[in-house]
């Protein structure tokens, strides 16, 4: 991320932050795409906020009823399903799987907090899925 | 993720994959929450598929018009905005920022592919945001 415009001595390309020299139609197209990216990011943030509300409830439910935290069969089904959904949406299935694992890592971190506040005796593994 | 039910000798808790011994109302609640989690995951996968379509277009646009790949000001605005959105949605802003960085890393990987296929001369840094 330390790339600077000084690397582009030939042609002196302008930066999007400095609109001079950019064809206005190109700048419009870039702005249009970035507005869509920003809308999508807002949607994803809100979907994930809702997802964490669900997994918090799962965590409390499991702690209250002494259900085991890990459910490897559930996790395997989630990964298989997400990979299939990604393929049909033309998203790299490997990326979808990595993303799920990234989110699950955060869920586990949340569960550690729940386990402490509920004085639960379960370990932190996978309880909120 | 190697946690097994054999760790729970006291009380022999049932597993969600083995419904015997679980109160049906608890199982219903767990299923309801998991169905919501699955719906949200499907929505997120599809939103991200759409996001990558946008960033692919940004990559081609920048390559075609020799725009510099990095735009640190844009990136800083994205992070500030996402952290604010996360806070209002009661999602950990730190998690939202980590997620954006995780997605951007994948975008950069895609850009490396575009740069090769377009025979571009730009570096891989940040071109698709």
UniProtKB/TrEMBL annotation, chains A, B:
Residues 1-25 are annotated as: Disordered. It is an enzyme of class 5 (isomerase). Its EC number is 5.4.99.5. It comes from the Bacteria. One of its GO terms (molecular function) is chorismate mutase activity. This is Chorismate mutase. PROSITE patterns: CHORISMATE_MUT_2. The keyword Isomerase applies. Coiled coil: none annotated. Keywords: Isomerase. Residues 24-115 form the Chorismate mutase domain. It comes from Streptomyces rapamycinicus.
């Amino acid at each position: 991320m330390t790339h600077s415009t000084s690397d582009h001595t030939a042609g002196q390309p302008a930066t999007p932050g400095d609109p001079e020299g950019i064809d206005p139609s190109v700048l419009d197209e870039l702005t249009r795409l970035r507005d869509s990216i920003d809308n999508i990011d807002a949607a994803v943030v809100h979907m994930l906020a809702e997802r964490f509300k669900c997994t918090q409830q799962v965590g409390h439910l499991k702690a209250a009823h002494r259900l085991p935290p890990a459910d490897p069969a559930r996790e395997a089904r989630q990964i298989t399903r997400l990979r299939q959904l990604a393929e049909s949406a033309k998203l790299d299935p490997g990326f979808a799987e990595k993303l799920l694992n990234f989110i699950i890592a955060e869920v586990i971190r949340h569960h550690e907090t729940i386990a402490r506040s509920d004085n639960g005796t379960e370990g932190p593994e996978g309880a909120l899925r």
